[in-house]
Amino acid sequence: MSGMARSPARLAWARFMRRRAAVAGLVVIVIFVLSASLAPLIAPYDPIATSWSAVRKAPSAMHWMGTDENGRDVLARVIFGARASMLAGVVSVLIAAGIGVPSGLLAGFAGGWIDAVLSRIVDAMLACPFLILAIALAAFLGPDLKNAMIAIGVTAAPVFMRVARGAAMDVAGNDYVEAARALGNPPWRVAVRHVLPNIIPPVLVQGTLAIATAIIAEASLSFLGLGQQPPEPSWGSMLNAAQRFLIQAPWLAVFPGLAIFLCVLSFNLVGDGLRDALDPRQRT
Amino acid sequence: MLARRVAQVVPTLVLVSLLVFGLQQLMPGDPAVILAGEERGDPVVLAQIRSELWLDRSLPVQYLHWVGNLLHGNLGFSWRIRQPVSELVLTKLPVTLQLGVMAFCIALLIGIPAGIFAAVKKNTVWDYLASFVGLAGLSTPNFWLGIMLILLVSVQLGWLPPSGYVPLDVDWRQSLATTIMPAFVLGNAIAAVLMRHTRSAMLTALDQDYVRTARAKGLTEWRVVLRHALRNALVPVVTLGALELGTLFSGAVLTEQVFSIPGFGKLVVDAVFNRDYPVVQGVVLVTAFLFVMLNLIADVLYVVINPRLRVA
Description:
heterodimer, A: mainly alpha, B: mainly alpha
């Protein structure tokens, strides 16, 4: 497959690189991923070490983003907070795609009653507002980061199922799929070897955009106290604490939110760029 | 075609009820033990709770009993507030509805003109700017936007109260003053979505023959855009707008939390923290039901508005 797919992938990459906004988004994501993985090396202070003498100090040369209500360095907490957000973004999307893509492939390729049943289940899940369902799941599972990721992943799965189903139905009508069938390949082999590789582009676009949604969802759950538990830093829980000190320490509310915004915006920019690069027909 | 669409609603609602019922099975621990509290050591109390809540029956029997109650408008009984869930929902829903209607108006006022503008100025700096602002709106967590607005408008400028809620029928000015910021926060994300839909629908409409005819007739450009293109572009935008009800309810959860507004969203969050699971289930069920019904209405309206679909 690699020899065949190389040149379309290269072409798509070239189209992607021409979009400045998407490339800027990619650069920001790389910076966030690096800070998350190298957090212990680059953070200026210990993110959970409290300090009585440094409670709620405004941003300064010592503490670029100031300190919080327990005297912890906000920059260090924002850098370590990237770990929870990135992890939640990627893991919950992997869970969502892991459930959604196989079931969508099955529904789109098999059709008939299998498709009807799976599609109704997806309709029912999509009828529940995303965040309310995620909150309900997280609440019933119990509050921690792992359960928040499961809740977000399961809630996001129906969208992947729809995307994979639609793409699989498109691809299944092609001549090469017909040919693979005519050669006597069993249906599962046709689905996995011939249909699956061709539905990857829309799934990849959906995946990138879903990471953005998942990061906001994780921040929302943590803001409500249903995600990462204190004292471990996460952007959402930092904002929750900041709300109590809006008058005395407004900087506490600014930086974690800015981090979420930049991160989510970057994934959205890359997702839009990927869509244009991978599917030139859809360009407006 | 419509009959088939209406018939589709039934299995969807049945599955929603199964899903919501299933949530309860995820709960770690025995609900009877949680409810008994101090008396959790007393087997008589536990047995009594189990029989009252039908927890001693098999799962299918529990489900049928629960659905039977639902069909009679009985959403269950709050474990903590000791009130029927349906009563709680009915008292909180109008608050969120007021917020939602205001948010939708704000979203329409921003999203549709911005979308028209971006489409008319296609591929210019203005178009890119509008698209970027829209994407930025989609990328801003609404609870953070709320906090930043409180910081700017309430703390720094002192223009509006930072939190709280006054009902419309008590004092409408105060009511608007307490809801305008949260409504803007909620409307912002929907405005971004509406802008994107309006832009692409307008681009399609502006490309049609009747628009060329209108131009050829010598009509002014704004008349062509507003009278001829927009009227046709708005049909898909309106139906897609109905899909944003979910965004609205999801957004309301955090927005009401930030602005301390006693609506639907605050109800579900408080219920989560009080481990008042029947209320959580009730809220999920009601929002899903409203979403399914609103989508059905939107689909019906779509056929009614669009004469081309009426014959089919």
